[in-house]
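Morning F.,

Quick status update on the modeling queue. The single chain you submitted on Monday has been processed. Sequence for confirmation:
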Amino acid sequence: MATKNIEIVASPKPAHFVGDGFRVHNFIPGIQGMDMKRMDPFIMLDYNSKFHFNGSDNPRGVGVHPHRGFETVTIAYQGKVEHHDSAGGGGIIGEGDVQWMTAAKGVLHKEYHETEWSKTGGIFQMVQLWVNLPSVYKMSCPKYQAIKNADMEKVDLRDHGYVEIIAGEYNGHKGPATTFSPVNMMNAKLKSGGKAEFDFPASFNTGALVIEGSIIVNGEQKVPTDHFVLFQNEGETFSIEAAEDAVILIISGQPLNEPIYPHGPFVMNTREEIMQAFEDYNTGKFGYLED
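Structure tokens below.
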């Protein structure tokens, strides 16, 4: 097996607010060299690094808005997120939990700080990924997966920490999320000096986001907190060592290699499909959700 070397170490761009509840750094597609085509099937990655929100009786977040053609994956690291959608999906996720919404042919949804957590506020930290759907599934029925941290397979690395699997496979262990194309998504939680080895096909688009601490990749490159590592599409294996206690989100997916035509909250394959999405939204085909 050949080593998968680093292509880019990306520092976070200046943060911006999505609604009034999510203060995010955009890595995909905002970083040069990490556009939707290069990162396929990962077409968006927003990272809400640690940020303190004061308490509020009115939960902060994003009001009702539509999506079609892809999936949203929200990973909570600190704080609590509440979600509702027009297909009946929804719930609350806390630290370590994940909500995986398949928008497919279209949903309305809203997401915001959980009501009770919002009253006191505190440190909030999360990631939201958009995972593109293959064209054959873009107009399938929406669905929602609530994935509790307790339900994730955790692979023990002896005294080094562990890897918790959200989707895909690590060392023969599988995560609970179902996907429409080969996608691996997992958190490596390593003690200082701890090391984990990863193995993904050379053709898969692969990256790592340092959520906590700092790491050394392949025994050479030190990467600090809140930075993203993009790996080359050559070689299969790479190693991550924790320079201090660290949490690292690992993503690796098989590219769909289909046309990507995004417009706002819709990601389809052609301009005509985008126009149809707007027409369907405007005529109420995405259902109803109270704001």
